[in-house]
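User: Design a sequence. Structure:
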C-alpha cells in the first residue's frame, strides 16, 4: 500500500511516499528554518505562507522521485495535530483536496505518534510493545506503546518541553535558532561537572518531569555572569545543561521500562538527536539488558516519512477521516482534546 504523507505542523513542509508503513520511497522536505532564524524562532504567519508555496510542488516532486503516478497512491496521510494551527491547516486542506480528487482514504496522524513511527522505518524488525521516550521541541513524555495505535502516557513534562529549553539556552548564548544542535556541539568540548544545575523532582508521579527550573537556573547563571563581567565557559555550561536534561529524562525512562517489563526502549523527536541523551540511553539500557531503538539523526526531526509510517498503522486500525477533518493546535497523543 502506497501512502502519500503530508507534514506541515511547524517549519518544515514535507511530503513522502511510504509503502506498507516501513519502506520510504521518497521523503521530500522544504525547510524554512533559514527564514525563521533571523527572528530567533518560528513566525507562524510566515510558516503558513511558505507551506502554501511549497506543498504542491513538493507533492509533484515526491511522485516524480518515486517514479509513480497519482493512480499508484492508495491513501493520503496527514499530520492533523498538534502544531501551529495555520501551518497544520495547510497540510490538512491539501490532504483533503488530494483525497477527494483521487478518491482515496484520508488518514489523520498525530504528529507525536509519527515521531514514534520514525523508529519503525529505522528498524524494520521493531514491533510494539515498547517504551518510547519522546523529546521534541514542543513535547516531552514517556509513553507505553502497547500497540501501533494503542498507548498510555506514563509521564510528561509539567511545564516546558526539553527542546524548548535547549533552544532558549542556545538563544541566550547567542547561538543560531534552533539552538539544540548548537548546544549539543558546544557540549562536546566542555566539562559537565563545571556548573551545578538543578534536577527538580515534580509531584507524585515518578515519571513526570519539569524543565522550567533548570532552564531558569541556566539563564540566571548566564545573566548573572554578564552583570558582574565574568566570562561564562560556554562549552561547559552546555555540557552541564545537557547532562542535567539527560538526567531528568533517562532514569525516568528506564524506571518506566522496568515497570512495564518490556525489553525495548525507543527514543523519538528532534531532541533524540542529542549525543549526551543517546549515550546515556545506550549505557543505561545495556545495564537492564534492554534493546535500544534510536532513529538516525535524519529521522529524529520532522519528516513526512514518519507520518506515512504511522498512517499505515492508523489505516489498518480503521482510523480514517472524512472531509470534515479539522486541524488542532493541541491534542493528546491518545487523540483526546486538551
Ligand atoms: O521534533 P522536532 O523536529 O520538532 C517538534 O516536533 O518540536 O524537534 C525540534 C527540537 C528543537 O527544539 C531542536 O533544538 C531540538 O529538537 N534538537 C536538539 C538537537 N537537535 C535538534 N536538541 C538537543 N540536541 C540536539 N542535537
Ligand atoms: Zn516534531
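Assistant: Done.
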Amino acid at each position: 500500500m502506497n501512502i502519500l504523507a503530508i507534514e506541515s505542523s511547524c517549519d518544515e513542509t514535507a511530503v513522502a511516499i511510504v509503502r506498507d508503513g516501513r519502506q520510504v520511497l521518497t521523503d521530500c522536505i522544504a525547510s524554512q528554518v533559514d527564514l525563521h532564524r533571523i527572528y530567533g524562532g518560528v513566525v507562524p504567519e510566515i510558516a503558513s505562507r511558505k507551506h502554501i508555496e511549497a506543498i504542491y510542488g513538493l507533492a509533484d516532486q515526491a511522485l516524480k522521485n518515486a517514479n509513480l503516478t497519482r493512480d499508484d497512491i492508495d491513501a493520503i496521510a496527514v499530520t492533523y495535530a498538534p502544531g501551529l494551527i495555520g501551518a497544520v491547516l495547510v497540510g490538512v486542506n491539501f490532504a483533503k483536496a488530494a483525497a477527494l480528487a483521487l478518491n482515496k482514504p484520508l488518514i489523520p496522524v498525530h504528529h507525536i505518534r509519527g515521531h514514534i513511527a520514525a523508529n519503525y522505518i529505522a528498524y524494520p524488525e521493531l514491533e510494539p510493545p515498547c517504551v518510547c521516550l519522546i523529546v521534541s521541541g514542543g513535547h516531552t513524555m514517556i509513553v507505553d506503546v502497547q500497540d501501533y495505535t494503542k498507548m498510555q502516557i506514563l509521564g510528561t513534562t509539567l511545564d516546558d518541553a526539553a527542546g524548548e529549553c535547549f533552544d532558549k539556552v542556545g538563544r541566550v548564548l547567542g547561538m543560531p535558532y534552533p539552538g539544540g544542535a548548537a548546544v549539543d556541539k558546544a557540549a562536546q568540548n566542555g566539562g559537565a561537572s563545571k556548573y551545578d544545575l538543578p534536577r527538580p523532582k515534580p509531584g507524585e508521579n515518578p515519571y513526570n518531569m519539569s524543565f522550567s527550573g533548570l532552564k531558569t537556573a541556566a539563564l540566571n547563571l548566564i545573566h548573572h555572569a554578564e552583570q558582574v563581567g565574568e566570562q561564562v565557559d560556554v562549552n561547559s555550561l552546555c555540557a552541564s545543561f545537557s547532562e542535567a536534561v539527560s538526567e531528568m529524562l533517562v532514569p525516568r525512562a528506564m524506571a518506566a521500562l522496568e515497570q512495564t517489563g518490556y525489553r525495548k526502549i525507543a527514543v523519538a523527536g528532534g531532541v533524540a538527536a542529542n549525543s549526551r541523551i543517546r549515550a546515556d540511553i545506550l549505557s543505561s539500557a545495556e545495564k537492564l539488558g534492554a534493546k535500544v531503538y534510536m532513529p538516525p539523526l535524519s529521522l529524529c526531526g520532522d519528516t513526512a516519512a514518519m507520518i506515512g509510517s504511522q498512517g499505515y498503522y492508523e489505516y489498518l486500525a480503521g482510523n480514517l477521516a472524512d472531509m470534515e477533518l479539522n486541524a488542532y493546535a493541541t491534542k493528546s497523543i491518545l487523540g483526546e482534546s486538551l
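The chain has a mean pLDDT of 97. Residues 199 and 247 are 7 Å apart (CA to CA).
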